[in-house]
Amino acid sequence: MRGKLVRPTTALLPVALAVTLGGLALPQPAHAAAGPALAVDTTAGRHAISPYVYGMNFADEALARDIRLPIHRYGGNHTTRYNFRHDITNRAADWYFENLPNDNADPASLPKGSETDKFVAQDKATGAETIMTVPMLGWVAKDRTRSCSFSVAKYGPQQSTDPWWPDCGNGKKADGTPITTNDPLDTSVAVGPQYATDFVNHLKSQFGSAANGGVEFYNLDNEPDLWHSTHRDVRKEGLGYDELRERTYAYAAAIKAADPGAKTLGPVGWGLNSIHFSGLDQDTCSRTGCWGNPPDRAAHGGKELGPWYLEQMRAYEQEHGTRILDYFDIHIYPQQTGVHHKEAGDAATQERRLRSTRQLWDPTYVDESWINKPVRMIPRMRELVDQHYPGTKIAMTEYSWGAYGHLNGALTQADILGIFGREGLDMANLWTAPEADEPVAHAFRIYRNYDGSGGAFGETSVKATSADQGKLAIYAAERSADKALTMVVVNKTSDELTSPVALTGVSAGTAQVYRYSGANLDGIVRQADQAVGATGFTATFPANSITHIVLPHGDGNGGDTEAPTAPGRPVAGAVTSDSVALSWAPSADDVGVTGYDVHRAEGTGTVKLGSATGTSFTATGLTADTSYTFVVTARDAAGNVSTASPGLTVKTAPSTTPTAGCTVTYATNTWPGGFTANITVTNTGTTPIDGWKLAFDFPTAGQKLGQGWSATWKQDGATVTAQSMSWNGRLAPGASTGIGFNGSWTGSNPAPTGFTLNGSTCALG
């Protein structure tokens, strides 16, 4: 049966694993190539993985049960005008702007028994949380009568009509000119925030409040920055900054008033441009080419929509004492040619699909599309909320890399789910759910039900690295129920690759191995067990495969699974500009402790700085005049790791030494009214730079900073500054980093000449 675990007999097992254990090298397949080195350190990078990153849109009940779907979204363009009272949607530009009533055996009982009632009931039956979309456009479908916005009989011949209902057109004349004189009342009725109140109250009446098992999450509509396109039959103009804020205030407040325990997600934008531009600017600039100086943004101090929106939500909480935005939600669909397609495409497209997942995290990956710059979507969103509305979580309630029915799609999806957990995303929902027997569904099973009996990837991410993630990607996590180490390895190449897997913080033992590959597209196959030495193992990963390795905790150590108690809060000793001396009280059961690990907080997780056998450690390589938070964990001989100690926050001393020498190169791509600048900063000195701030002045008053990347950018008058990020702040002697920004200009656009780094003048390269 498709979708179930398949365990072959020993005689049929492929030669797929080779081990080096106790000095004895076992035979390896002659055709396996050397792969990149892999490493997992269970004592470093520890942070919780949100279960909500494994979400979907519109999954059927059988698949939801099989993968124990944690969160399920009712969303999409058609939900923008969903009328819960009459159980009908308008399909907008997706399908000829038609009102289509949902199948309902007892319409007289509505709103009870509606499609959304059934959706929530399924979620309760399968144990999933619900994300319900609340219309915020101001229009919903008017009744259960099938109708459409652009009747041919009423508005004349059109470019395209519904093949099953020829009177319904696409709203464009034969020459492609949009019809703008249609009557919204043909299909829709105006509603306000009271509609949101009534909808939430109905769901509460059927399923209880959010605090009592009812619907907990509400999307603030769907992609409102595209309303002028997807719902142009009732919305002619793009949604601007101010209107988005006012609608969010009104509708989110209505949801919170109706159910105080509910969580809201907004602005539910369609992609990267939803951070840069309002719907009004997207509408205007798509017609006039004003991307370098969008007028709606200019009217709001030149601030991009994303940070402005978050600041407005923070301002509401400060004024009213109520948080009305819980998740910053932006969708993402890869823009690279052929990637977001149903079909896998040719070999070049499949390779591009696998590479393109780097846009989720990698600062060195320049998006291979019209975007043509680093996207870093998850870190970008995290930095935005940390800077503009701390405490807000981040979500992508729609995403898809396509190719659901192909192994290439499964490899990509497995990579994406690993990235979501490693990077600390709070919520994600695949658009839409795959069929239960499609390869992409098996990618979810690898993480949620690899053995057909509920076996799952761990809930605490730990540090996992690959010398070449483009060939072999590795993700690792500790499972809370049994402390097992779980590892997922994705071979993205057409070669079998043999790689060493170095392990830190675990014990020798025997690991279980499960794999999904072209050898059996019908399901995940249990492989021969893997012997694991005290420092790791070597394995061969078949071409185009996903491997899940499960190392039980404490195996080979007498079954010891009890972790030490946490050590005491660290105390600071000597503090310099680049170091902090730390000491701490030992764990209460220090007799069994073999060492302590010191970690520095970073983002949603931690970075291990080093280890000590005693109770003191000096953290070095820090940035001057910067606050750091340190925690300590204890470990024993069986590899058990304690919970973290209470944290200590300490600020390093100001720098007393001059900054090392530097060189800056500045290159632009200029067009009328706008430009892109790419800057390379190089440390030409003999000492490392730990944390940098680049500054320069624009030569003319007409030059303005727009959106930047790989640094925190600001403009004050003519002066522009770029502050390093956590991942590119350290520049060793001779090292370089690339940063850049988009800008606008009037008059002329000369290059700056006076660059300084941490106050010291840089030479021009």
What's the topology here?
Blueprint: E1 20-21, E2 24-25, E3 33-34, E4 38-41, E5 47-48, E6 55-57, H1 61-66, E7 71-74, E8 88-90, E9 98-101, H2 115-126, E10 129-134, E11 139-141, E12 147-148, H3 152-155, E13 161-162, E14 165-169, E15 188-190, H4 193-207, E16 217-220, H5 227-230, H6 241-258, E17 263-269, H7 273-276, H8 279-288, H9 295-298, H10 305-320, E18 327-330, H11 347-356, H12 377-388, E19 393-399, H13 407-423, E20 427-430, H14 439-448, E21 460-466, E22 472-478, E23 485-491, E24 497-504, E25 509-517, E26 520-526, E27 530-532, E28 536-541, E29 545-551, E30 571-575, E31 580-583, E32 593-602, E33 605-612, E34 616-619, E35 627-636, E36 648-651, E37 662-671, E38 674-683, E39 689-690, E40 693-697, E41 704-709, E42 712-716, E43 719-723, E44 730-731, E45 736-744, E46 756-757, E47 760-761, E48 763-764
Parallel strand pairs: 3-24, 4-24, 6-7, 6-20, 7-10, 10-16, 16-17, 17-18, 18-19, 19-20, 37-48
Antiparallel strand pairs: 1-2, 4-21, 5-21, 8-9, 9-12, 11-15, 13-14, 21-22, 22-23, 23-29, 24-28, 25-26, 25-27, 25-29, 30-31, 31-34, 32-33, 32-35, 35-36, 37-38, 38-45, 39-44, 40-43, 40-46, 41-45, 42-43, 46-47
Helix pairs in contact: 4-6, 6-10, 10-12, 13-14
